[in-house]
């Protein structure tokens, strides 16, 4: 992400590694795991409590998410975490495409997504959703 992008919505997923599902205003979507951040940073420990964690909301002006107790996290850090956590999915997509000698067009057709999405995912401009990585594995199970 070159320029900061405002957050459109956020949803808590407490059981799923204390994750938040974020939709940015540019349409980028990602689930960001926060369990490690919560464990490492004393100021975030209150988020271990389910009620506090589930109080997450888009902060004023949409440049951060916030929780009760004056805890917040900015859009740039959240996007950075999403990218770091998605590296494995990006590698899965790229390796799958190369293993089958697929162009962006053929990969897009096989996965039922746009060619542009393949490019954005592989170039790291958008995080690869988990369902795309799973679709690669599913495609292989049916075609190999």
Describe the structure using short key phrases:
NE0471 N-terminal domain-like, 144 residues, 2 domains, 434 Repressor (Amino-terminal Domain), 6 strands, alpha+beta, three-stranded antiparallel β-sheet, 6 helices, single chain
Kindly describe this structure.
The protein has 144 residues and is of the alpha+beta class. The chain folds into two domains: 75 residues, 2-Layer Sandwich (NE0471 N-terminal domain-like); 59 residues, 434 Repressor (Amino-terminal Domain), CATH 1.10.260. 45% of the residues lie in helices and 19% in strands. It contains six helices and six strands, in the order βββααβββαααα. The strands form two sheets. A three-stranded antiparallel β-sheet has the order 1-2-3. A three-stranded antiparallel β-sheet has the order 4-5-6. Strand 2 and strand 3 form a beta hairpin. It is elongated, with a radius of gyration of 17 Å.
Summarize the model shown.
45% of the residues lie in helices and 19% in strands. It has 144 residues and is an alpha+beta fold. The strands form two sheets. A three-stranded antiparallel β-sheet has the order 1-2-3. A three-stranded antiparallel β-sheet has the order 4-5-6.
SSE inventory with pairings:
Blueprint: E1 7-13, E2 19-24, E3 29-33, H1 35-40, H2 50-53, E4 57-58, E5 64-67, E6 71-74, H3 75-99, H4 104-111, H5 115-122, H6 130-143
Helix pairs in contact: 3-6, 4-5
């Amino acid at each position: 992400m070159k320029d900061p992008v405002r957050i459109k919505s956020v949803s808590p997923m407490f059981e799923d590694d204390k994750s938040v599902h974020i939709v940015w205003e540019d349409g980028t979507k990602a689930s960001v795991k926060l369990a490690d951040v919560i464990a490492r940073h004393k100021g975030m420990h209150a988020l271990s409590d389910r009620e506090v964690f589930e109080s997450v909301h888009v902060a004023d002006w949409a440049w951060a998410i916030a929780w009760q107790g004056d805890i917040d996290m900015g859009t740039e850090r959240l996007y950075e975490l999403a990218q770091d956590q998605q590296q494995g999915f990006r590698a899965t997509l790229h390796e799958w495409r190369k293993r089958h000698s697929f162009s962006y067009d053929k990969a897009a057709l096989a996965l039922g997504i746009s060619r542009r999405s393949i490019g954005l995912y592989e170039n790291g401009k958008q995080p690869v959703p988990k369902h795309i990585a799973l679709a690669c594995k599913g495609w292989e199970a049916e075609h190999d």
